[in-house]
Amino acid sequence: MTQVEQIKELVAKNADTTVALAKEIWGYAELSYEEFRSSSALVEALKEQGFEIEEGIAGMPTAFKASFKCGSGKPVIGLLAEYDALSGLSQKAACPRQEAIEPGGSGHGCGHNLIGAGCYAAAVALKEYFIAHSIDGTVVFFGCPAEEGAGSKQFIARAGYFDDVDFAYTWHPATVNEVGSKGSVAIMGANFIFDGVAAHAGGAPHLGRSALDAVELMNVGANYLREHMIDAARIHYAYSDPGGTAPNVVQSHAVIKYEVRAPKVNQVQELFTRLVDVAKGAALMTGTKMQYEITMAFSDYVPNRTLGVLMDECMRELGAPEWTEEEYSLATEFLRTYNRSTMLGIRESLEEYFTPDEMDKALQKPLDNVIHPFNPKETGYSSGSTDVGDVGYATPTVMIHVATACLGNVGHSWQNTAFSCSDIGMKGMLRAAEMLCLGALRTLEQPELIDKAKEELKRKNGGGYSCPLPDYVEPPIGKY
Q1: End-to-end Cα distance, the chain
Q2: Any long-range contacts for 67-70 (C-beta under 8 Å, 24+ apart)?
Q3: Are 169 and 315 in contact (CB under 8 A)?
Q4: Which residue, 128, 237, 267, 291, is the most exposed by fewest CB within 10 angstroms?
Q5: Is 97 left (phi over 0), alpha (psi -120 to 50) or beta?
Q6: Spatial CA neighbour of 432 closest among 112, 118, 22
C-alpha cells in the first residue's frame, strides 16, 4: 500500500472509537477549566493505546500531556487538542431546528469535541505507523483546556513543555478546507476593580464615592480611546460586578472585565497600557481606588509558512471530505435557518473563496468539497484570537481548517453545536486526522524542512518564546 493508503487504513481501524469519543465529549459539554470528564475520557483512551500520561500540567487539573516514544524519540511531534464547550449553546445533535437538550445549558458550539477526538485519531495512527515502520520519534498529544476562556496553551508554553517539541500541528472545525493563511490577533484581558465609599444616595450622597460611577467613566474613556487606535484593534467589555441592585446606595465596589485585541503582541500591550491609564483617570475623577488583575493573554497566531506549504500539499493529496447527497441535503436545511441579513453576511464572508458564479453553485450544495490554496505571502489577520498563537511562538506550528459544517455556518451558534455531533462533523474530523498524520510523517521525512521551519520561527520570536502574561499570573481557575 502507499503511505496515504496506510494512513487511511490506520485512521479507519480506530474510527468507531474516535467517533464514540467525540460524541462522549460532546455530551459532557464542559466549560473552561471544568472539563474533568472530557479530559479523563481522552486520557483513558490514550492510556489504552500505550501513551504515557502526565496529568495536571502547568497548574491546570484538566490539562495533560500524553507521549509515545519510538527508538531515539527524536524528532518530537506535538498535536494540540481542545475539548471545552460554550455556555448557553445546548442543542440536539444534527437537528436543523433550534431545540436545546437543556435550556440554557452548554454546548460544543465551536466543535472542540471534534478537535480532541480528531487529534486522538491522528496520534494513534502515527504511533501505529511508527511501530510498523520502525521510525524514530515521539508523538506528544497535548490536552489543552479552556481555549474559549482564559486559555491554557500559553501557560503550558511558559512552563517549557514545547521547548523540546520540533513542530506542532492542530486543526479546527470549519466550513471550508484549507491551511488558514491569515493570522489570528493577539489579546489581553483583565478585571478592573474599583473601590469607593458606600453612602445613602438620597440622604448623604456627598459622603459616598461611587465605584459604579468610576466604571461608567472608564467606559466613556474607552469609547474615546477607540477613535485613536489602529483599525485592526478591538476593545471589549462586560460588567462582572456592578456593585449591587439598590439604586439608593452609593455603590462602594464594582468590577468590569476588559479585553483588547490587536494583530501583534506589542500592539496589544501598548493599547492595554493606555486602557489602564483610562481606568486610573476614572478612579481619580471619582475619588475611588482602582486595581487590576490580568486574567488572560494570547499571542498572535501566524502559521509557519514553511510547514504551511507542506501541509497544503498533504491536504490536496488526501482531498476534501466526500459528501453524500443526504449530507448535502442536511447542510441545506441548516443554511435555510439563517435570515436574509445573515445570509448576506455569509455570502460576503465567502467571497474570498468563490467567484460570484461559483458562489451560487456552492450554496446550492453547501458543503465544501475542495481544498482552497494556501497563500504563504498572506499578511492579513482575522479578528479572532486563539491560544494556539503562543505555541506558534514556541515551536513551528500550523493549524488546518477542515469542513465539518455547511458553508458559511456561523461559529458559536446552536447550528454549530448540532453539526459537532452529526455525520458531517464526524466525517470532517476523520479526514482531519488523516491530514494531520500525513503532514507529520512528511515533515519527519525532511529534516532540512524542520530546520528551515525553525529558522523561520527564530526570525519571528527573536530566539525564544516570551509569554505575554506576567510571571505572577496563574491560570484563573474559578475566576474567569
Answers
A1: 50
A2: 67/138, 67/139, 67/140, 67/141, 68/123, 68/127, 68/130, 68/138, 68/139, 69/137, 69/138, 70/127, 70/130, 70/131, 70/134, 70/135, 70/136, 70/137, 70/138
A3: no
A4: 291
A5: beta
A6: 118
144 & 208 share domain: no
Residue 442 · residue 310 · CB < 8 Å: yes
399 CB contacts (<8 Å, ≥6 apart)? Answer: 80, 169, 170, 171, 172, 179, 180, 301, 303, 386, 388
Say what the pLDDT of residue 205 is: 96
Rounded to whole angstroms, how far apart are CA atoms 241 and 66? Answer: 39
Assigned C-alpha cell, 192: 478592573
The CA-based angle 327-330-176, given to 5 degrees, is 65
Look at the chain and report how many structural domains it folds into: 2
Co-location of 48 and 177 in the same domain? yes
Q: Which domain holds residue 262?
A: 186-296
What whole-number distance in Å separates Cα of residue 301 and Cα of residue 460?
11
Do 318 and 356 lie in one domain? The reply is yes
- What is the per-residue pLDDT across 124-143, written as a single tens digit (0 to 9) for each? 999 999 999 999 999 999 99
Tens-digit pLDDT profile for residues 18-46: 999 999 999 999 999 999 999 999 999 99
